[in-house]
Amino acid sequence: xxxxxxxxxxxxxxxxxxxxxxxxxxxxxxxxxxxxxxxxxxxxxxxxxxxxxxxxxxxxxxxxxxxxxxxxxxxxxxxxxxxxxxxxxxxxxxxxxxxxxxxxxxxxxxxxxxxxxxxxxxx
Length: 123
Description:
Blueprint: E1 4-8, H1 12-24, E2 28-32, H2 35-45, E3 49-52, E4 55-56, E5 59-60, H3 61-69, E6 77-81, H4 86-94, E7 99-102, H5 107-122
Parallel strand pairs: 1-2, 1-3, 3-6, 6-7
Antiparallel strand pairs: 4-5
Helix pairs in contact: 2-3
């Protein structure tokens, strides 16, 4: 069975592009465009990994990450965002992100990071 990845981004083009990239790589893709939808899908579907934008229309991805980390059995979370300041990266990592990637990141870098995060989660 393919591993499930939840992609959370409020930009439809980014959401679709990431979805296609991950589906072609063999993953089952779940999508959400808001912080609330992310939490709902994560709790219902129990994805193996979450790719989470920091800037969402109804809240911060970092706050979503903190909420998820307070719950049992949280999967690895990769923050994938246009916010590339050192302070933003530090906040994301302190909140419990597996990795903080700044957009645009190459397809190869993203897939490499996903593979590493999923490998760590199995340990």
